[in-house]
Amino acid sequence: MKYHILLFALLLGTFSLLHAQFPGGGPGGPGGPGGPPSAMTGRVYGKVVDETGAGVGYATVQVEGKVMDPATQALRDTIYAGQFTADNGDFNFEQVSARGPLEVVVSFLGYAEIRQPFDFSGGPTKDLGNLSLATAASTLTEVTVTAEASLSTLSLDRKSYRVDKDLSTAGGTAVDALKNVPSLSVDLDGNVSLRNGAPQVFIDGRPSTLTLEQIPATSIESVEVITNPSAKFDAGGGAAGIVNIVLKKDQQIGYNGNVRVGGDSQGGYNLGGDINARGGKVNVFGSGMLMSRQGTTVGTTFRETFTEPGPTRITQQTESDMSGTFGNVRAGLDYFLDNRNTLTLSGSYMNGTFRPTDYLTNTTTYGNGGTGESSGYERFSDQDRNFQNVGASLQFKHLFPRQGAEWTADANYNQVRFDGNSLYRSFYDSGDISQQRQESTGSGSFLTLQSDFIAPIDDKTKLEGGIKATLRSNSNDQATFVNYGEGEDWTQIIQLSDRFAFQDNVFAGYLQTGREFGDWGLQVGLRAESSFYEGTLTGQDSSFRIDYPISLFPSAFLTRKLNETDQVQLAYTRRINRPNFFQTMPFTDFSDSLNLRRGNPQLLPEFTNSLELSYQNIFPSGNNLLVSVYYKQATDLIAAYQITEFNEQLGQNAIVTSYANTNSATAYGAEVTLKNNLFGWLDLTSNLNVYQSVVDAGNLESGLEVSRLSGFLKETVQIRLPKDFALQLNGEYRTRASFTPTTNNDAFGGGGNGPSQNTAQGYTQPIWFVDASLRKNLWNNAAAVTLSIQDIFGSREFGSYTLTDFFSQETSRLQNPQLLRLNFSYRFGKMDASLFQRKNTNSSSQGSDMLGG
User: 303-335, pLDDT tens digit by residue?
Assistant: First the structure.
């Protein structure tokens, strides 16, 4: 409670300080017709074009002006009319009020806003000619270089990837969206790695209990990748930076939305839609989705053991079928209190069920060279997993009269509940039968309270700061029963039945300042975080704590503008990676009897220092080159560690994969990202990352150290074809790697024995794959049909190799090769500035149908 009181006091203090520095600002409407219409009207028209002179369709064009507010007797901004440009870029407004100063405002994602003043002094018709869009200018203190509105946008401090322009994500989830993003890699279990490290995954800038598989790709607007986050961002994230998933929410005048439906060759389906409506002081948004996921995974494990009573060879083959259905709804509203204050409220609900089944065969051969006697068994497993997620968010934003000064405060809450039942039945060559049943229930929650401010000191200097509290809790109860036979005589195994809970609270505050010095820019910041972690084995009346009262995380960015198209940046940051729930949960997972898994409740957080030098060139043609060299050094690296122990339930030695802190790890490498547009119809985005990693685990085993050169290449090709067709190809190749940690926060532990994790005892196998998508636009781009195929050559096979003093092991898994998806989407909407207001037939405001509405 004392932390909550302190946080509330700091919020009030922050607002009071800012209000004292930037006072004033009377009320006013957020836009929308509010004054009496003028008796004089006119017509204004023109065309929106890009740098090449080609017309830009579906750009937003609004006619803005000022009217007298009868309450304050002061002029306030208003929107007289709005519409989208036609396919060729044309726009046309009739019956526009001819009173007072007027502006045409043009906006289009990826371009700088155009504001063109005009009047009707020369007559009732005004031709504005061609209005040319230009790429947004770059700044030094907060470097953002926005290129042409396309699949990806590159800048020195982040990459932005437009998911809604990625053809291959239609009908998929966030896993499908993230695997095409430059710098990111995603494995079969949805684990994400960023430059050979574990990123912090946010949704709309906040932590969430949702997993990537639970987020439909159609709900995502873009994905932001920040390799070196400043002190403004959470320090959590370990060896990598931040991946921020930005969900769709529009604020265009009028209403717009889309509906979609699709299916795949495995029998899965998806249907959903979203809508946004804005008028006057209210902007309302909502979406809904229902998705069925079906799939098959085949896997192989080959192991040789070197322990007593003698060497053995074990071959295990697995075939898994996944069947799951889940749905969600999301809704919210923005309420524009006045020109300077906006209140946003949103909520979400998700519910789903997954029912995976597995068939496993295991053969063990004894003796040197595997020439002796053999034994084996078959195992059938059935699982039933259910989850429910509820989320809510409240945000407030205040704009001060001084340009660029603002204060924000928000609260976000997420809660997940889950339960699962698993039944394993084993039939041995000897005729024996054994059954094992696991029952589990659990819950988790996130609560974040945050406040931030931006205070420009002068035209070249600004100060930023904020405070944040993150309160995280998880609990899991698991019971294990065995039955040696086919009857109903079940016996609970107390040693394998546990109740575990943890509370993880992080309190943070930061300050950072930026200053321009001619062609130089400097930004420095410092973040302080206090973390308090407590884990409890409630069934054993045992608990432990890991407290870090104060940890400091500095950041510094030095930028040099070489000329109008070239700039370089040197960045330094310090970050932390705290162990997650499933890395600390001390339960043994028997879903694969050959590869048992168990968490380690004694894990410590890992700390990482990162240094990065980046160079960016924006060519006159709009092509973009980004080159980075980087160095990362981590202490107490959280790594997978495999041990051999005798398991009484299995009656034999078993390999258990757990987690441990190693002495240290380093990685250094170079990354090149190149975005090209060729011939006006071909877009290429190329990403190459090569790095050397060294993991020192001498504290776990004497002399245990692994050093490896790794890399990956990713290519995205988009081709605009005649007749409104478009083709997209995505390809990726990854070499062996030892430094690719797990980041999935799946409430059920990831659902498999995925190899993507830090290890000092082996490496992940090389992998490559190619996806393809074809889209046909219909009805003047109001609708689209997309056909895609995932893993064309069936080569996306994830594997790992492990070598210890006791055994060597190779694993491989292949999931849903050559999966076909067919999806249809339809967009609708209408620009109407008087939405949610009483209609006035004398008003000069006008609406314009857009797309299929």
Answer: 888 876 678 888 999 999 999 999 999 999 999
